[in-house]
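Hey team,

Sharing the Thymidylate synthase run so nobody has to redo it. Sequence (318 residues) first:
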Amino acid sequence: MSKSEHTYLDLCKHVIENGVKKDDRTGTGTISTFGYQMRFDLSEGFPLLTTKRIPFRLIASELLWFIKGDTNIKYLLQNNNNIWNEWAFKKWVESSEYYGPDMTDFGLRAQTDQQFGQEYEKQMEAFKEKILSDDDFSKVYGELGNVYGKQWRDWRTSSGETIDQLKDVIETIKKNPYSRRLIVSAWNPEDVPMMALPPCHTLFQFYVSEGKLSCQLYQRSADIFLGIPFNIASYSLLTHLIAHECGLEVGEFIHTLGDAHIYVNHVEQINIQLEREVKELPKLILNPDKKSVFEIEMEDIKIEGYEPHPTIKAPVAV
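Structure output:
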């Protein structure tokens, strides 16, 4: 049996048993610890959790969005991916151009007020439709600022030039695989105020040894129930894609967490998940005809043998 999922479940247990209660930016409240590391051997199988269903399609389309350098949710919506909607929607309903019902604290209110929740869903659907159909509206309210894709592919320098960090690191892996500078940073202090959400996964580093590519991610803020399963799969997929381009096997994904927290309204869901039996990990299949990371599309990425337990729903804290 794979150790990968137990590694994640051990994190859940550690935080529940040792975490401290803290207030947070969203007003929800968390149980939190600081400093934790997980290691996943990618040769064991693809680390997509089986104790609850994780929507791999959303993970893959979000990663391709990052790789393309895109920062507008329109691409995500075109791929039926709604995971960044709330941050764009917040920008819209707090603008001077919004004249609909009061959406203040919509994330929390939708959980406790059924009537408000229905109105929120109505407004969100209208917002999504406008993003998809109105280019001018999309350019303003679909834009999330200089988030991950911008920093990975188009980092702005003080001299006005730009750096394609992702492209540069791939070329360095090919030419100088033992370099200790195989780093991509999403944390740009100058740009943080212009981001809908400052990057939670802030910096990642690659490492080549014995023909295998490993990746370590430092994540400053880690939503253990909703976010971390996505992050594990996303950066494992990125490692596979870059190893594929560079002619390497995959090694480990190492996940280092800063503030690792469980939202207080996710504890019940975590406990349900901890009671479930771990199943075999699925296998990742990449199109062998696509060699470059920058050529990969959704149809080139497949997961086989994924038979998880059912989804466990939980609210997103915005």
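The first helix runs from residue 4 to 18.

Ping me if you want the raw files.
A.
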